[in-house]
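hiii so um. not sure if this is the right channel but i have a protein structure encoded as tokens and i wanna go backwards to a sequence. like what aa goes where. can anyone help
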């Protein structure tokens, strides 16, 4: 009478160790590649959103004949005379970027939101016609130069949770010949680009790992 042998089941300890070693080796090889892919995708997204915001500001200007540098109520676009009428910054949602300590030309103005009239959220001008959150002091919506938005929707913080910035004060008529940036502080969440780069004396390049587009 023939007796069947028992079927083999499970893994030996050596086989388990070999499998775990292979998994660990693959993880060691793939993890840096995956992290680099994720980092590159964030950088690509930030670059794209900087361009989208820049294009939205240009479209806004084409329609209204203005730059989003004034609290609406100065629709003629002439230089403001009352304190606090000119905005320093255009910002999105998100947390503040930190400021580089080197070079020393990085001005605190990039994160100066302590004065209520110095800044405004981009959505108030580009997504909805409510500058400074006002529903009455709005851009005109009729005539040859009218607000025809929304010009952008859906852009909040950059991929690292930090605000997008634009130093729009240099759009005002008669302003110093300084560069206007739309800027993300990049992976290190630290602004390294000078707020007051001169178009006459500087090549107009963002500094460090900042991701920026020059509007002026």
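sure thing!! here u go:
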């Amino acid at each position: 009478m023939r007796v069947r042998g028992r079927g083999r089941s499970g893994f030996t300890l050596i086989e388990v160790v070999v499998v775990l070693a292979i998994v660990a080796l693959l993880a060691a090889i793939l993890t840096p590649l995956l992290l680099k892919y994720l980092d590159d995708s964030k950088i690509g997204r930030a670059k794209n959103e900087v361009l989208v915001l820049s294009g939205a500001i240009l479209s806004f200007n084409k329609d209204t004949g203005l730059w989003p540098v004034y609290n609406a109520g100065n629709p003629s676009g002439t230089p403001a005379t009352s304190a606090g009428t000119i905005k320093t910054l255009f910002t999105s949602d998100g947390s503040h970027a930190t400021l580089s300590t080197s070079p020393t030309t990085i001005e605190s103005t990039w994160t100066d939101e302590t004065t209520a009239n110095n800044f405004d959220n981009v959505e108030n001008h580009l997504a909805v016609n409510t500058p400074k959150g006002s529903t009455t002091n709005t851009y005109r919506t009729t005539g040859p130069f009218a607000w025809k938005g929304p010009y952008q929707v859906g852009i909040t913080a950059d991929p690292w949770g930090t605000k997008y910035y634009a130093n729009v004060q240099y759009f005002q008529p008669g302003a110093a010949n300084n560069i206007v940036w739309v800027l993300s502080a990049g992976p290190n969440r630290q602004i390294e680009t000078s707020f007051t780069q001169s178009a006459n004396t500087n090549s107009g390049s963002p500094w460090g790992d900042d991701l920026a587009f020059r509007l002026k």
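oh and Helices lie at 13-64, 123-126.
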